[in-house]
Amino acid sequence: MLIRDLEERDWPAVKAIFEEGIAAGATFYTEVPPWEDWDGAHLPLRLVAEEDGQVAGWAALTPYSDRDCYRGVAESSVYVAARARGRGVGRALMERLVRDSEEAGYWTLQAGVFPENDASLALHRRCGFRVVGVRERLGQLAGDWKDVVLLERRTER
Question: Which of 49, 76, 103, 130 could be a cystine partner for 57, CB 3.0 to 4.6 Å?
């Protein structure tokens, strides 16, 4: 498996994996935004995992806030293609994202995960995230209120 920087040419594969996550109910998104919007919303720290020359997953950071006091805080996203789940792709992406974010000066990564997404919760815990709370009925998806487990990982430095 190769972990490398996500490039614009990866967008069709990244979009398809994102669409799988939407179809599985793993996000509040109901459709993938256009590349320009997605690109503009994410920090330069974005990765893909390649297996046999195909994108098997992606990870990226979005800023927590544009206020200077939060410049070292970001929200992480990790998505793995259905065909590649259970093979360590998510963990490889998250471990690299953590390492790269710390090298770039980030001290806190946070994530919001639906409580029923056991695989994502386990991945985050294995990568040093801890649950800081549950945001009850935070938003609606397909007319149903959804809770969101808030996780964070603080740098050890």
Answer: 49
For the beta sheet containing 54-63, the strands, ordered from the edge strand earlier in sequence to the opposite edge, are 2-5, 46-51, 54-63, 73-80, 108-113, 144-154, 130-141
Which residues, 6 or more positions from 122, have their beta carbon under 8 angstroms from its beta carbon? none
Summarised one tens digit per residue, pLDDT across range 59-81 is 999 999 999 999 999 999 999 99
Quote the tokens at residue 68. 């200077």
Angle (deg, nearest 10), helices 89-103 and 118-126? 50
Residue 113 confidence (pLDDT) above 90:
yes
How far apart, in Å, do the first and last CA atoms of the chain sit? 29
Place of tokens 């994202």: 97
Q: Which pLDDT band, with edges at 50, 70 and 90, does 157 fall under? A: low
Report the predicted TM-score, pTM, of the whole model to 2 decimal places: 0.94
B/e letters for 15-25, b = 16+ CB within 10 Å, e = fewer, are bebbebbbeee
Phi first, then psi: give them for residue 114, nearest 5 degrees. -65, 140
Number of H helices, E strands in the chain: 4, 7
Question: Are 55 and 14 contacting, i.e. CB atoms less than 8 angstroms apart?
Answer: yes
